[in-house]
Design a protein that fits this description.
- The protein has 2 helices and 8 strands, in the order βββαβββαββ.
- 21% of the residues lie in helices and 38% in strands.
- The strands form 2 sheets. Strands 1, 2, 3, 6, 7 and 8 form a 6-stranded mixed sheet that branches.
Length: 149
């Protein structure tokens, strides 16, 4: 599982011209899921994400977590995080999880953030053609890969 995490001052996602998710200060998380991912892996990724101290304190040091700033999360499914560009010029996505498995874990992640962490969580629409807007704060972007945790 991969989480591409961006610290944002605001972010939104539109589908067919309608805004379906929008947040102020917090995290925009693009989520890539592979076939071998599980709820246990998702739990580890979620815990790590919500506890990352990547927001500035009064001294300008990245010392605060999402909870410390009472921030929100916008989660967007992103199978292209598993693009393999080693051969040729057309990316291969064979490492990405099949849509049914990936959607189930995507929904699990959303449920965990909302119900077990109490974080205001907005989301994109799995499998949809989405337009994502953001104001990257910093910019500050982090890639979490479950294979490296």
């Amino acid at each position: 599982m991969k989480f591409l995490i961006q610290v944002v001052s605001k972010s939104s996602v539109d589908v067919d011209g309608d805004t379906i998710g929008s947040i102020g200060q917090g995290l925009l998380i693009f989520v890539g899921i592979k076939g071998s991912d599980s709820e246990e892996i998702a739990d580890k990724m979620i815990r790590k994400t919500v506890n990352l101290r990547i927001f500035e304190d009064d001294s300008g040091k990245t010392n605060l977590s999402l909870g410390d700033i009472n921030g929100s999360i916008l989660v967007v499914s992103q199978f292209t995080l598993y693009a393999d560009c080693r051969k040729g010029n057309r990316p291969s996505f064979v490492k990405a999880g099949d849509p049914q498995h990936a959607n189930r874990l995507y929904e699990y992640i959303l449920s965990e953030l909302r119900n077990n962490y109490g974080i205001h969580t907005e989301c994109g629409r799995f499998g949809a053609d989405m337009n994502v807007s953001l104001v990257n704060d910093g910019p500050f972007t982090v890639m979490l890969d479950s294979d490296e945790l």
